[in-house]
Amino acid sequence: MDLNRIMFLLDRYYSGDILPEEYEILLSALEAKEPFTPELEKERRMLLAIESCAPIVPECFEKRLEEAIEQRQRRSGKFMKRYVYGSVAAIVLVLMVIGGRYSINNSLHPEHRLEIAAVEGVESVGVVKKEPTSSGFSGDDIEKTARLVSTSDKVAKSDNANVPKNLNDEEFEEALQTVDNALLSMISDIRMSQNSVAECMEEIEITQKTDFNSF
Amino acid sequence: MKRILTAIGAIIVMWIGMSAQDTRDTGNVPHKETRTEVLTYIASLPEVSVTYLTKTMLQKFPKDRAESPLGVLVDKGEVESIRVFELGNEEAEAAGKKLINAYISELPDYSSIDPSLPSSQLELLMLQNNPSNEVIMYGITELRNINTYETVLMYSKAEGKKTILIILSGSIQEKTIGELIDSFSR
What we know:
heterodimer; A: 7 helices; B: alpha+beta; 6 helices; about 35% helix
């Protein structure tokens, strides 16, 4: 091949316009053992050096590359899904925990609810008498008290309606007696205390040395 | 590895959040029990008897028993409700005193809102503590009338008798309590 043709192909190579067939022709021309000018010799050595370092493309490389890209895209889609579902699950779990703690803190045992109704809520209703029991506040007592509350509540709601005498006559009498006895007992204790104070005062001796100005 | 570390981090964050939800008072400030809490507690104790007479019940008080202490109170028309607690053991007695403290501690200080109002509605009527008997009596006055009690708390404990806590509510004149004691203490 003549030198002009080689120079032409080299120009096309550097400009990037060279076709693969022309590149093969250029390479085979440069590999020939013809004597070249010093400039052309340099070009020959450079091109051959580059050619010897060219990577070896494995078989089906393009196909494998496409498969890898597809797989990566699929994985990133899966990751996003997992991320979203995980976040939602975590939020739901935290809300459940908070809700559970809140309901535990505020809810009362059913028995205690009835106890409050029996004692505090009775403010709007009639008489409740709780008998002392050694076994404590049993389930029967709770039910009995709740029945009393609900019955008396209906009575109270009827706006000063007459309490049917047969409904709580006995309990009413018993309650009146209890309160009377309690008041009497209280008054006698108060009097006893007053008496003890009076006795103490009587024991105070007033002597000639008593300085009344100090009182 | 990343996932394991993320999961561990999430567990730690949730554990911190859960322990922060613990709103129970565990600090040095003592928890002030409310009246409701103490009443609930008293109601749950054994050997405690509670009798509660409301206004409606008091209005139906039989006239033939006007000579009794209750009859005197009903006759005056000042009492709207009476609660009697019979406290049968030491725990119940302590709970009774707690109830008195709860009533006292829930009194607001109106003087900070209106300087013309008294700073406290509470009056100590009687306080006696002997080996043989103990009497505590408090009166909670009405807001603008210090001679009238809206609540009277009476606690008495004597040897050989059940401890009693009586709570009178209404609009009770100061002299009514004195007359009651004088009438029945001969």
